[in-house]
């Protein structure tokens, strides 16, 4: 989230008292176990104070990555289009790892549909400035000719720009460039500011509000890990990959056709063993500590400041060129791959851990969403509604610390669902016991009913209930999931992964090129592009200290 969320007025609604939530009836009706009783209690107490309606005031932001590719489906070798502005300073249109990997960012908005509308408008503007190039429609990349052919993103000659490029150069050395061009969608969530004092009273907690907010967001983060396997099951859309992605390396994946690997029950290979992860690298695996904000900050700080013999072999400044920012376990915080991150807005070149220490958690970023190949935006309305519901459920649900055994279960569950999520024989682990995915998923869907009732209050059409029902149907019938649909369509059309993805990419490109951008919105994007280029020019015109001193000052921040 790169802007302050704006909300209109006080969302307390005395009329909400008359539509009170009865936790006992919901629990009896849906057979919810006592595990989720805290959600019911907190909603009931909020309702008693007329404050449950504040749950409708969450701010939602989206970040969507997409590879720029040529019409024939190969990664673009062209620079980031100047007409889109500066990738270094533009608030909405930037690049991720590669010069060809666009990242499109919405500000935090008071409704998920407004975030989708903003994302749609960014896509239209981008397509107006892409020439004949298109955006790749899937998380897993197009045909690749090895990592050396993947252009690392460039951000100009300033120290700030060079730091971003060197960081990416280091990622390429550490994990390989191919892994870095896997795309995803990030869902950013922050609860209404007005909710926090009401929720603090509802849970019976005293003390400073900021400490309560931080603790609740960290609890939400832990719950998003506990139940996070549900996201790749419901929304995973990467059960197959082009063989070129593996570059001839041995694999246990099965052959779909002569150009494609897959796994029959996979949901999200992006979230599996072939995706980008720190923990699989021998000797440098880390796990952040989410017990508290202080513990989280300390665990990341330790990784950033601890040398790694493996990365020391790469070198830092080699023959006058910076190959990585440092040779520590993590160069910077962003290198730590996690499905979810507690975050704070940065002020200038502030370190993320320092921003968290100074101002606490501002929002939580869910990072486990594959790009939805069946939707031009890569994410759709029912997904957005369900994700908001899921985030609130995880916020309201009490969340004990994660011990070593549970962390192992979390990792095993996520990996199992990524590779075998639609397998009827798949068993998940919970507190040392096995249970079927379907059983646990239906249990979670039932446990979210109370949140649904509040979110749909005073809204037409019950959009959150509809979104929940779509997901419940996917749990009951795995063939309804995007990953199953993808493999079925590939079989029916006789397409491998590449041809499937290219066909949808061209369809989505035609969709956006057929839309007209509102004149004021176009002018806003044009102005942002111009202003961002000017900001980069100003930055580069300033006197720059030597890069090594710049980095030393950056890492010395306390």
Automatic annotation (TrEMBL):
Q: Which reaction does it catalyse?
A: L-cysteine + L-glutamate + ATP = gamma-L-glutamyl-L-cysteine + ADP + phosphate + H(+)
Presence of the UniProt keyword ATP-binding in the record: yes
GO-annotated biological processes: glutathione biosynthetic process
**Residues in Glutamate--cysteine ligase domain copies:** 45-414
What Gene Ontology cellular component terms go with this record? cytosol
Q: What class of enzyme is it?
A: ligase
Stretch list, region Disordered:
1-24
| Functional pathway | Sulfur metabolism; glutathione biosynthesis; glutathione from L-cysteine and L-glutamate: step 1/2
Q: What is its EC number?
A: 6.3.2.2
* GO molecular function (one): glutamate-cysteine ligase activity
| Alphabetical UniProt keywords | ATP-binding, Glutathione biosynthesis, Ligase, Nucleotide-binding
Family as reported in the entry's similarity comment: Belongs to the glutamate--cysteine ligase type 1 family. Type 1 subfamily.
Its name, as the record gives it, is Glutamate--cysteine ligase
Give the species this sequence originates from.
Sedimenticola thiotaurini
């Amino acid at each position: 989230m790169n802007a302050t969320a704006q909300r209109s007025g006080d969302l307390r609604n005395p009329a909400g008292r008359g539509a009170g939530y009865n936790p006992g009836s919901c629990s009896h009706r849906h057979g919810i176990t006592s595990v989720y009783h805290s959600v019911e209690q907190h909603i009931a107490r909020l309702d008693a104070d007329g404050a449950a309606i504040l749950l409708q005031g969450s701010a939602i932001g989206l970040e969507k990555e997409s590879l720029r590719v040529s019409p024939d489906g190969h990664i673009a070798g062209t620079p980031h289009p100047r007409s889109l502005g500066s990738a270094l300073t533009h608030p909405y249109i930037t690049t991720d790892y590669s010069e060809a990997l666009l990242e499109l960012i919405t500000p935090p908005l008071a409704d998920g549909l407004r975030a989708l509308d903003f994302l749609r408008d960014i896509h239209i503007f981008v397509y107006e400035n892409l020439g004949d190039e298109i955006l790749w429609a899937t998380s897993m990349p197009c045909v690749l000719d090895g990592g050396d052919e993947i252009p690392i993103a460039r951000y100009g000659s300033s120290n700030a720009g060079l730091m971003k490029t060197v960081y990416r150069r280091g990622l390429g050395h550490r994990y390989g460039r191919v892994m870095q061009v896997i795309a995803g969608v990030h869902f950013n969530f922050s609860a209404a500011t007005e909710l926090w004092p009401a929720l603090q009273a509802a849970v019976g907690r005293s003390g400073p509000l900021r400490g309560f907010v931080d603790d609740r967001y960290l609890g939400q983060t832990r719950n998003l890990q506990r139940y996070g396997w549900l996201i790749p099951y419901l929304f995973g859309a990467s059960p197959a990959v082009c063989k070129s992605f593996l570059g001839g390396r041995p694999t246990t994946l099965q052959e779909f056709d002569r150009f494609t690997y897959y796994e029959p029950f996979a949901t999200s290979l992006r979230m599996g063993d072939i995706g980008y992860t720190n923990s699989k690298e021998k000797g440098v695996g880390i796990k952040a500590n989410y017990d508290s904000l202080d513990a989280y900050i300390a665990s990341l700080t330790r990784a950033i400041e601890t040398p790694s013999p493996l990365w020391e072999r790469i070198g830092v400044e080699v023959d006058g060129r910076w190959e990585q920012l440092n040779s520590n376990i993590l160069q910077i915080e962003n290198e730590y791959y996690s499905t979810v991150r507690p975050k704070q807005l940065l002020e200038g070149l502030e370190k993320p851990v320092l921003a968290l220490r100074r101002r606490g958690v501002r929002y939580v970023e869910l990072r486990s969403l594959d790009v939805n190949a069946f939707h031009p935006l890569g994410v759709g309305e029912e997904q957005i509604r369900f994700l908001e519901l899921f985030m609130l459920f995880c916020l309201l649900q009490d969340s004990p610390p994660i011990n070593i055994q549970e962390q192992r279960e979390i990792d095993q569950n996520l990996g199992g669902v990524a590779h075998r999520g639609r397998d009827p024989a798949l068993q998940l682990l919970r507190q040392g016991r096995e249970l079927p995915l379907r059983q646990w998923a239906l249990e979670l869907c039932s446990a979210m009913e109370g949140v649904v009732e509040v979110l749909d209050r005073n809204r037409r059409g019950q959009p959150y209930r509809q979104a929940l029902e779509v997901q419940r149907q996917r749990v009951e019938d795995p063939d309804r999931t995007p990953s199953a649909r993808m493999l079925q369509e590939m079989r029916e059309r006789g397409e491998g992964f590449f041809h499937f993805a290219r066909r949808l990419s061209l369809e989505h490109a035609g969709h956006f090129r057929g839309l007209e951008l509102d004149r004021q919105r176009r002018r806003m994007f044009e102005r942002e592009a111009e202003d961002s280029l000017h900001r980069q020019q100003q930055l580069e015109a300033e006197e720059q200290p030597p890069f090594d001193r710049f980095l030393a000052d950056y890492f010395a921040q306390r």
